[in-house]
Amino acid sequence: MFFNMHELTMAQAILDEAQQQVEAHRAHRVLAIRLQVGELSTAVPEALTFSFEVISKNTCAQDARLDITRVPWRIRCSSCQKEYRVHDRLALCPECNSAGGETIAGKELMITEMEIE
Amino acid sequence: MTRIKVITDILESNARIAKQNAEIFNEVGLYVINLMGSPGAGKTSLLEWTIKALSEDLRIGVIEGDIQSSIDAERISRLGIRTVQINTGGACHLDGNMIRPALDDFNLKELDLLIVENVGNLVCPAEFELGEDAKVMLLSVTEGDDKPQKYPLMFQQSAVLLVNKVDLLPYVDCSVDAIEERSRALNTAIEVFPISCKTHEGLEAWSAWLKKHVGEKHEGG
Predict the structure, then answer these.
(1) Closest CA to B140 of B45, B41, B46, B48
(2) Nearest-CA neighbor of B115 among B104, B130, B125?
(3) B123: domain range?
(4) Which of A99, A110, B36, B88 is most buried, with most CB under 10 Å away?
(5) Mutate which: B8, B10, B95, B99, vs A, most A CBs within 10 A
(6) Residue B169 CB partners (closer than 8 Å, separation 6+)
(7) Which residues of B fall within a CB distance of 8 Å from A17?
(8) Residue A15: CA atoms inside 13 Å, Cβ hemisphere, count?
(9) Nearest to B6 among A17, A27, A78 (CB)
């Protein structure tokens, strides 16, 4: 099945996981799903929420709330190892002025918690 | 109400399929690249040149991903290369699942290199693994040198960045040095090759890189 937006693919994966959890815990429905979406991820939270609303209709996750936390983009400087947050675009290290380094946070696309009953 | 800790990567099911694809490729020692870039960056022209340059030494197969039409597959087929077109019907990227049926159209044992040309897009192709050995990104100088800052994930995930259309540099405000510097800040290991598919500048270095990696995989496989 091919979808038009990548968020729809992601929403489907979230729904699959929710349905598995409901089954595993012999619950009836999903109330909330907590997600971490890194600032570097291509997922747009609004589009993810909308996609999930559409595909969760008539499932155990209908009306479930998606709580999305954006995870800031963080870099470890390749020269001085200082860890810093990137705002807007990659700039120079605030400590030593070198460019760039390893991304240590910001690519997340994770389910962390669910509320079921 | 019960609260349960889950900790699941949303893209895990795609990653699983991509891993299975990679196992299929590894079993036969086939080197696979996932070629990504904007519409019009020159992906298909690059493919044409690469095929002409390497088809005497390497057995090459191509998967073409496009939203619509088989224009690209027809271009590549003209070079006598086995080509399978995938039309995503609107989807903005290829994923691990989409390329699986296309693999049945090849005799993978008889290939050394499989090139998957992704849908023209700088956004989500970066997020979906196909099972490839390397992501290769093509950016043209007409797109501007701010692209690493605007689409960081794509540059972070790519092993190689080809900067195309350098023959047009006198006419555009774009610095290849700035592209390289900004790309390296995001990804220290990225290999950058300035090229022109029109004048063929820089393409020897790219094909040498490709040949080397195909050879290494072949020996290991």
Answers:
(1) B41
(2) B130
(3) 13-220
(4) B36
(5) B10
(6) B141, B176
(7) 6, 8, 10
(8) 22
(9) A17
The whole-chain average pLDDT of chain B stands at 94
In sequence order, the 6+-apart residues with CB closer than 8 A to the CB of B198 are B165, B167
Cα torsion angle, A90, A94, A98, A100, sign: negative
What total of structural domains would you count in chain B?
A: 1
- Structural domain contains residue B157: yes
Per the domain annotation, does B140 fall within a domain?
Answer: yes
The domain that contains B110 carries what CATH number? 3.40.50.300
Strand partners, B163: B139, B194
Token readout for A42 is 């291509």
pLDDT tens for each residue of A4-33: 578 998 999 999 999 999 999 999 999 999
pLDDT in tens, B165-178: 999 999 999 999 99
- Whether residue B141 is contained in a domain is answered as yes
The Cβ of residue A46 has, within 10 Å, a number of other Cβ atoms equal to 10
Report yes or no: A43 and A6 within 8 Å, Cβ to Cβ: yes
